[in-house]
Amino acid sequence: MAETDWSSLTMTAEKLQANAITDTGMPSVTRNIRQLLDAAENLWTKVGVPGIEAQGNVFLCSRGVDAPQVPKQLEKLNSTVTLDTLDPKPDMDVDSFVKNEVQNAILSLIESVKKSNEDFLDERQKDTVNKNWKNKKINIINSFPGYMPNSSISGSNHTMPSITKFNSTNFGLNAHLDQTELVYAKHLCEYNQHVENHGVQTDILQSFTTAAEIAHDDRVNEMWKIVKCMSQIVPEHGSNRTRNSVTNQNSMISNARSYLEQRYIVFMKSYVKSHLSKAKLGGIPGTYPLVRSFVSVYINQYSNPSQLFYDGLPFWPLLYYLIRCGDLESVVRVLEKNNQDPELLNVFICIKNNHQYANLNNHGFTSSMAWDSNDPFKRVIYSLVAAIDVTSKHSDVVKTTDDYLWLKLCQVRNDKDKFTYPVLQSTILEEYKDQFSEVQPMSYFQLLFLTGQFESAIQFIFRHPKLRSHAIHVAIVLNEMGLLHLPDDFDEPILSKDNNEITRLNLVRMMKIYCANFENQDLKMAFNYYYCLRNTESEGITLFISCVADLVIETEEYDKMFGYLKPDGKKQNGILDSFTVSDTVKMDIIRTTATLAEQKCDLEVAAKLYELVGKYDKVIELANIMLSRIIQPDTYSSLDKTPNMKNKVFDYVELLSQRLIGIEINVSDEAIFTFNLLKSVFVFFEQYYNHKYTKAFDVLQTIGLVPLSVDQVEERLIAFKKYNELILRIVPGVLTATMNMLYSQYSDIKKEETKKHIRDPEQRQAQLEYIREKARAITSFTGRVPFQINSEVINHLVQTEILLY
């Protein structure tokens, strides 16, 4: 069956072959099926390997690989002797090696410096942002009249009091000073003028006391009396503890006690006058008759437990009120005649001689000696001379706040184990804060001030809008006397405490808040108030100069405050010229303002201010920066793209150039060269934008910034190395504009060629070659210039040059 099948298949194949069309243009098959079968059997016999290997041999043979010979070739390779490892030969190109090492070192150094600079700039930016934001927060908080910083009082928690009404002067509304504030300002201006003209300070305290009388307010008049009384101490200039010495503390205690005693005498006189029929005041003048009459009327329900009398009056009440009035001579005389307590007599003799309670020792007194008696006046007397039982308020005798404060001042001792002055200050600050804060602010001011807490007292009434003018002028007086504790950092809140727990008042911040009411309407008045800071420095500059500079920057009244230079170079005077301050101070103010304007990036204002003080090196520097910005506006913000900005800057530069003619200025040749070159480049771009290409090429030929022929390339490359960075930044723009002009000229010539009747084809071709030469010079210069030019600019230049052919 298989034979039949195979025979039939063979015949069929031969038949198909005979019938096949062979006229196809391809070579015909020269083998029939039988021949193919014989050839396959021969290959099978030659390989002699059955199975999959045979199929692989057939496949490899079709690819030209003799499979049976592969193992022999592998054995031959395996039997080859392995070569020994060769020693590497060192690189003998020393120049290349050193060059690579130097380049790597330079690149690593550049990268290191770049990273350190970036880190430094990031850190500076963060610090500046944090500081500015901190100042903003402090200014906003301090603008609220009811604000009381937590740092001013230690050991307790406080919240901001409720504010029923905003002070409109802090929110941009027009502010008008009242009559009292205007009188204060007038006296301050007169004081400043006298100080500047004569160098001798007048009595500013008396001047402000007189000014306050116009308010017709007894509380205000009393405030200035207290200030006058408490300021009678000797300041320790240059010390951080101006008022904290034992001598000054004792003086303040004596001054406060004397003031309270004198005020009580006034009260006695008023009381006795209202009870003349009962008082039986005789015609003998003096404190003792007054006290005797007062006791006879005032003590009505006194039981006199000790049954002691003197001159027909109870002994202990009479003695107490004599002490309360400060009549120590009468006290000693009464004790001598009474002869009840020799030790008590010795104590008051000592007090009378040195006018001090603070240095007393206990003299053998004990609390039992006072409290064994049922007489409240006797207990108070023993308590104040022996400083015992200081926590008792003695309410049977001590009726008013003045009485309480006077008693505490008598009980203060210099001994650390006793009732000390700082303890008294803390007690007054804590106990009466809530009682007087909103109801009677002036009474609380008096308590604080009489206990030597000047800063806290001033800050307290400064929070009240109606008392703010009085607070700022009290602060000015104390600062002029050197009695005010100011902070080291004037970015602190109005009231703060340092590491030594000394309360400090930020007079600068107070002054700025107060002057904000009128500084926009009256710069001259604000100037006079800031003049009070002339002796206070921060970071090497007086705060007077710093505050005036900040004021001018904020109001932007540069010409009004400082004046300006006319086109002919003559100066138009401003407000500053009307003051009698020295020319050095005026120059410092203008120079500081110019620096702030420069930091604010208001370069034109800064340049004009620097010109006022004759600092022409900064003027030319800023003028060069402004010119470089308007020459290539695409590199900068949209503000510099406007024609008005460009014309404004260039007009100022032209006026500056005119004013500099014939003037010797201390400016480097490089800066002057850069200034003149940038002006010419600005003119070039103006001609370019207006499509005045011929004039633009004339400018380029004059300044010689870029080559306009191949012969000029080397010369321009040598000059390029000497250019300032401001010039280098505009070179890519100049190259691009120049190439664009060349292409525009080339296009115009080509358009002419398309027209009929060309008169001079050779001339046209020469013009084209001239344009191509300029383009070659520019691209050659661009490729060799030692400056990194943007790849887009390079591509544009190269592609444009190609279009010229």
Automatic annotation (TrEMBL):
Its source organism is Cinara cedri
A Pfam family assignment: Nic96
In alphabetical order, the GO MF annotations are: structural constituent of nuclear pore
Subcellular localization, as worded in the UniProt entry: Nucleus, Nuclear pore complex
Q: Which GO terms describe its biological process?
A: poly(A)+ mRNA export from nucleus; protein import into nucleus
| Keywords noted in UniProt | Membrane, mRNA transport, Nuclear pore complex, Nucleus, Protein transport, Translocation, Transport
Q: Which family does it belong to?
A: Belongs to the nucleoporin interacting component (NIC) family.
Question: In its UniProt entry, what is this protein called?
Answer: Nuclear pore protein
Entry's Gene Ontology cellular component terms: nuclear pore
